[in-house]
């Protein structure tokens, strides 16, 4: 038998130690979904993206790594990176205040490009980027709607990533120091 869980119930189990704090899960429509293990290439790309954004974003925009984004009462996800306005604060993070989510995909590419991107669009997250950790190809999704994002772009590793949340940053994924 299956049981539908709520975000509140999962958070209570985490506080009580029933679910270990370091357990990598997401809750999608009340279903607990285990996350794929993170490979070294995934982590290297994520760390270097974070360093880049910390240095180049305007002061009013912040980026958080792997923080919980509560989409509704029975769904939460943990994007690799999430951008939000400093004035909104991390405590008020929601689909409405999230400016952009980034998923770095290694083993999770199909899941991130399909299920996660559809979730972000359905809940109105403005934009989502899925970066293929190995090839550094990025998939940008903008203009959310109930059926998904209406605009989808594939950006090669030598092309600058367009960011609607800040002035042009000129980030080309091939230029990241991936060591």
TrEMBL record:
Coiled coil: none
Putative restriction endonuclease domain segment(s): 19-162
Pfam families given in the database record: Uma2
Gene3D superfamilies in UniProt: tt1808, chain A
PANTHER family: SLL1072 PROTEIN, SLR1083 PROTEIN
Record protein name field: Putative restriction endonuclease domain-containing protein
